[in-house]
Amino acid sequence: MSDVRVLADPEAVSRAAADDFVALARETVGRCGSFSVALSGGSTPRRLYQLLAEAPRRAEVDWSRVDFFWGDERAVPPDHPDSNYGAAQAALLGPVGAPAERVHRINGELADPEQAAREYEAELARVLGAAPGGPPPALGLILLGMGADGHTASLFPYSQALAERRRWALSVYVARLGATRITLTPPVLNRGREIRLLVTGRDKAGALHEALEGPREPERLPVQLIAPEAGRVVWLVDRAAASKLSGA
Ligand code: 6PG
Fold first, then answer.
1. What is the end-to-end Cα distance of the chain in Å, rounded?
2. Which residue, 69, 70, 114, 189, is the most exposed by fewest CB within 10 angstroms?
3. Ligand 1 center from residue 147 Cα (angstroms)
4. How far is the CA of 230 from the centre of ligand 1 (A)?
């Protein structure tokens, strides 16, 4: 089930995402004692992370009960400017005092990115109680963005990772970027209980229109692979990104 919420601008998208995060974290911690979230990378979620680390939202979540994962990571050290972990650590994890044992980053610094993917799979299994080789782990919330080419996480158009149905994380070489990434695979992304796709900016309008209203072509538009059987998907988009949607 997909729901599209069109908000005025990137700030409104960030605030809506922050409010959803807080509500889901509070409800899940209250019900289960902990909450697992996969953070997304790129520039869009940076303001969201700042809002979560500021009053009033900061005090509304018991951050000691939140397990942080990532939807993808660049094959770089954690202190590299391109590190998705590094960006989240600076904007959110550090300011809220996330305990180290609750931060499950992808070891992008490893010389062998496939080893980083396998270690990440083991950490997902350990923390979320999933058996390796069994059904994928179910994260409480998965935050995702979308590129202007329709990629999400590090699932890029025509990548072999799009067809992966067994592994939970893979390393992928992205020729267009000349860079290696480690990414969650569609089976894990589609086990998310709640998914929030944050998309802002006019440069995303074409891909958003095609992804939501065009024919199903997930090889060309990997974000179309996000279709959980049971989880809820909410697109949080601003007017600029929604400008080519019917009824915009
Ligand atoms: C990454 C992200 C990636 C991102 C999109 C959108 O590691 O870069 O996981 O999937 O969400 O590329 O990026 P922007 O938010 O910067 O537009």
1. 21
2. 114
3. 6
4. 25
Token pair 């990440």: residue: 120
CB of 44 shorter than 6 A to ligand 1 = yes
149 CB under 6 A from ligand 1? no
CA of 198 to the centre of ligand 1 (A): 10
In the chain the domains, ranked by start, together with CATH numbers, are 2-238 (3.40.50.1360)
The predicted-structure confidence for 136-158, as pLDDT tens digits, reads as follows 999 999 999 999 999 999 999 99
Q: Is the CB of 20 under 6 A from ligand 1?
A: no
| Nearest CA among 198, 205, 217 for reference residue 246 | 205
